Amino acid sequence: MNDGSDSLRVCELFRSIAGETTRAGRPATFIRLAGCNLRCNWCDTQKAWEEGSLLALKDAIEILSSTPDKLVIVTGGEPLLQAGTLELCRKLDISQLDEAVGIILDIKPPSSGQQDEMDFDNIIRLKPGDELKIVVADREDFDWACEVIDMHKPVESVNILFSPASDLLDPKKLAEWILNAGKEIRMQLQLHKIIWPNEPEGFQILDESADCE
User: Looking at the domain assignment, is residue 213 inside a domain?
Assistant: First the structure.
């Protein structure tokens, strides 16, 4: 992976409708960074496991700042594997965006096979307005996630988001569990998969030759 702070390894750069989190439904520009240290069993973005294409940080900022969207989503893979990610967020936050950089923290449950790789101290590091997102594939995942929340107790104004793993859990079943749990959990569906179920999401900005696939 890239060790410098003046460039990024990029898998995709595209405009779309935000499909998840409390930003769902908003027009957004996405930069999907390449590389991930996890191998979740049900990962739906395996293309981000690859090396991607090298893009100078200044060029990435220029592209992201030139779109009409006020929301930029830096995603992966695992974006924080790259040294340039923090500088990218800093530059965007003080230039074109009208909102502070927000953290959306994914915690992987047992069905992912990666639960032992989690740093749960990150939950208490979340600040007000940040978000904690957990993909749930079965009842074991749901109960585990509720226990994690009870044990690590994010600050009250952190949004807690549960979503059903695609093709593995009926959303109705997750809704039933949430209703019976008595916790402040927000259920979410992947809006982009509803809009573009069998085709690439949104509109690519980078030339196809720069894509990591």
Answer: no
The packing angle between helices 171-181 and 139-152, to 10°, is 40
| 13 and 97 share one domain | yes
Q: How many angstroms separate the CA atoms of 127 and 27, rounded?
A: 24
Tell me the pLDDT tens digit for each residue of 18-74.
999 999 999 999 999 999 999 999 988 888 988 899 999 999 999 998 999 989 999
Asked if residue 161 lies in contact with residue 186, where contact means CB atoms within 8 angstroms, the answer is yes
SS3 at position 15: strand
Residues 118 and 144: their CA atoms lie apart, in Å, by: 13
- The pTM assigned to this predicted structure is 0.79
Other Cβ atoms less than 10 A from the Cβ of 98: the count is 7
Cβ-proximal residues to 188 (8 Å cutoff; 6+ apart), any chain: 20, 21, 24, 133, 161, 162, 163
Task: Please state, in angstroms and rounded to a whole number, the distance separating the CA atoms of residues 211 and 208.
Answer: 5
Distances (CA, A) of 33 to 18, 42, 120, 157, 211: 16, 19, 23, 28, 11
Q: Residue 180: how many CB atoms within 10 A of its CB?
A: 8
Q: 122: burial class by Cβ within 10 Å (0-12, 13-18, 19+)? A: middle
Three-state DSSP at 14 gives strand
For residue 151, give its domain range: 104-194
- Inside any domain, residue 109: yes
| Beta partners for residue 204, in sequence order | 14
List the Cα angle 124/129/134 in 5-degree steps. Answer: 60
The domain tally of the chain equals: 2
